[in-house]
Amino acid sequence: MLTIGERINGMFKDVGKAITSKDKNVIQDLAKKQVECGADVLDVNVGPAAADAVAAMRWLIESIQEVTDVPLALDSTKADVIEEGLKLAKKKAIINSTTAKKAKLDTLLPLAKKYDSGIIGLTMGESGIPRDRNERAEHAAVIISACMEAGIPIENLYLDPIILPVNVTQFQSLEVLEAIRDLKILSDPAPKTVLGLSNVSQGTDKRSLINRTFLVMAIANGLDAAIVDPMDNELMDAAITAELLLNKHIYCDSFLDAYRKK
Ligand code: THG
Q1: Cα separations (Å) of 93 from 61, 106, 113?
Q2: What is the pLDDT of residues 195-205, one digit of tens each?
Q3: Does domain 2-260 have CATH number 3.10.300.10?
Q4: Does the beta carbon of 9 sit less than 6 angstroms from any atom of ligand 1?
Q5: What stretches of the chain show up as alpha helix (H) in DSSP?
């Protein structure tokens, strides 16, 4: 599984404060710790508070790239914020994200093409959050054909079936698990799939347990990548063990350590 670290997001109080007070150490610590814990990619989101979101994205990326050169997932609803990230990123970045909305695809696919970046496609369209697995597949098909038309290799596409808090809309967790399977057969080569895992447990009081249980189920259904808190050791252990049991790693008694050192 491609592990995308979620912690550099202005939605978190410590990160929001660090952005306003330009406290580089907080960001650099989170970058280093997430990578040490196994993040392959770092998600970067300036959050809702930043007055100048483009400047905040620039400051975050410059701070992060002073301490690590893992690839970045540029998480914003604004195209100018994403493009600022694409200009600065040293490694092949991931745009997070487009939707199936025409205006979004028309703006973001040319950027993905120009910078040869990855791109996450949220399976939602003009009508908002998808209701079930079928709506997810419909939006996914729109995104896949738009990528093909724009000359974006499907290898660069990560479809996100959008997981919602289980305490708000309980039946959606099963729809997402089914969608992970459905999305895989929409093209050949198959598109990759990704989730913003922590959404599933927002507002609950068993966050880590719900996160890791759902992650294992999603991995068993073929999930390729996840935006997670890599500093949650039990979560990372569960993900590694799930992949071991799916025969994706070779067993040895110290498989957790062995996988982490790799
Ligand atoms: N799909 C894609 N990108 C995404 C999401 C997604 N990016 C954002 C989000 N969803 C994934 N990242 C997070 C980050 C934080 C939390 C949830 C998902 C979170 N934050 C605490 C909360 O709201 O309770 C913040 C509180 C705090 O500790 O300060 O849970 O789905 N493509």
Answers
A1: 11, 19, 12
A2: 999 999 999 99
A3: no
A4: yes
A5: 13-21, 24-36, 53-65, 79-88, 102-114, 133-150, 172-184, 207-220, 233-245, 255-261
Residues linked to residue 158 through DSSP beta bridges, in sequence order = 120, 192
Cα-to-centroid distance, 199 and ligand 1 (Å): 6
The helix/strand/coil state of 181 is helix
Nearest CA to ligand 1 atom 4: 196
| One-letter amino acid for residue 8 of the chain | I
The reported pLDDT for the residue numbered 49 is 79
Ramachandran class of 41: left when φ > 0, alpha when ψ lies in -120 to 50, beta otherwise: beta
- Do 227 and 73 form a contact (C-beta atoms < 8 A)? yes
CA 201 to centroid of ligand 1, rounded, Å: 10
92-140 per-position pLDDT tens digit:
999 999 999 999 999 999 999 999 999 999 999 988 899 999 999 999 9
**Max Cα separation, the chain?**
51
Atom of ligand 1 nearest to the CA of 158: 32
Confidence of residue 60 (pLDDT cuts 50, 70, 90): very high
For the ranges 45-54, 88-97, 212-221, which has the lowest average pLDDT?
45-54
